Amino acid sequence: MTTVQRSVPRVPMVSGSAPNPYENAMKQLENTASLIKLDSDAHEMLKQPKRILSVSIPIKMDNGRVKNFQGYRVQFSDARGPFKGGIRYHPNVTLDEVKALAAWMTWKCAVVDIPYGGSKGGVVCDPKNMSLGEKERLTRRYTSAIADFIGPYRDVPAPDVYTDPQTMAWILDTYSQIHGYQVPEVVTGKPISLGGSEGRLNSTSRGCVIAAREAARSLKLNLKGATAAVQGYGNVGSWSAVFLKELGVKVVAVSDSKDGIMSKQGLDPRKVQLHKDKTGSVVGLEGTQEISNEELLESEVDILIPAALENAITDRNASRIKAKIVCEGANGPTTPEADKILENNKVLVVPDILANAGGVTVSYLEWVQNLNREHWTEAEVNEKLEQKMVSAFKSTFETARRYNVPMRDGALALAVGRVSEAIRTLGIWP
Ligand code: GLU
Q1: Do the strands 51-60 and 66-77 form a parallel or antiparallel pair, or are they unpaired?
Q2: Same domain for 337 and 210?
Q3: pLDDT at residue 423 greater than cutoff 90
Q4: What residues does ligand 1 touch, defined as CB less than 6 Å away?
Q5: With contact defined as beta carbons under 8 Å apart, do 85 and 120 qualify?
Q6: Of all atoms in ligand 1, which is nearest to the CA of residue 108?
Q7: How far apart are CA 125 and CA 127, in angstroms?
Q8: CATH number assigned to the domain comprising residue 207
Q9: pLDDT tens digits for 344-402?
Q10: How many folded domains does the chain comprise?
Q11: Is 324 annotated in the active site?
């Protein structure tokens, strides 16, 4: 089998005692419920995921011994359509993290108004220290363990942290072998040769930079000559840096799990990528100064894109954030306590469920192409993404203004409102 090339994203690890992401997600739901006077029955139904799959995944490792991995698939809500969400491979995966991510996927799909519910998968493993063969066996066994619960009209997985188009190819093949025929529409984020969409690989970043651009417009901030810092130089962070530069923004600092670099003159994102591909880190690029991840987050810039993991901005560092706009490429990078501090300091936070919705939006476009056996050009895909992102930004902005709340609360109000309307109309049966 040919390997689909893609650089493995490197993401900073959460340090210290990390806040529980599911508690954060439920706090957000509580706040939204009182803001929009959410129907109490719908609220009750949204407090827990609809289904939690917990599977053990035994793999024959390269040394001939069997190792058991823990895997999850959490299906939060399918009120608005089939479950949808990525699969994450990371040593720090926990059930509560996957539950939170599944809830956020539900809101995300509702914010951009695509006909999906929300789900998420996670496997506790250290992909950086596994061979390609071990990762393939893990992926196939995990797929077979959840095969009865996924499907084009049930639950459609996609890439997330440390999974990529090659992982999706293995899922597609395993699922198709079980069913006896080829089912490309069971996953999105596939290689183009297997029905993947043009533009999917960098769609999260393209959407994120569109959101940052709209946020800048709302603040009357001229992007030409504006400055930005990007935390995390995986798929989302690295492409965001490229697209920011295309808009005339000077990307002055970037970081990965090792540390960060800065240059007052601005970095060339492609040179940074080449250096990272060669050495395994952005650190050490000629002509740049080394900085810590904390320094990066607190640097003097107009736009900050946290594009790594949860809990990057907490009550410990939020008061030192100097950016005018925080545009969340990652899922859950800001805790609710930090949100309050940023709001007081008049930082415009473009929330994850809007800012990083470009990925799932193009996943939806990929699924539609697959179901219709079509293949669109990159220009067509990007045009549809642009429309979806601009319209979701507008609706979020207007909702936030109507309730006189920050954009996160606006996005949640919009999303939870849409999901609860679906729940109410469906009723309960049996
Ligand atoms: N993992 C991505 C996210 O968190 C993409 C999900 C998808 O395309 O289904 O939004």
Answers
A1: antiparallel
A2: yes
A3: yes
A4: 84-86, 158, 160, 188-189, 331, 356, 359-360, 363
A5: yes
A6: 10
A7: 6
A8: 3.40.50.720
A9: 999 999 999 999 999 999 999 999 999 999 999 999 999 999 999 999 999 999 999 99
A10: 2
A11: no
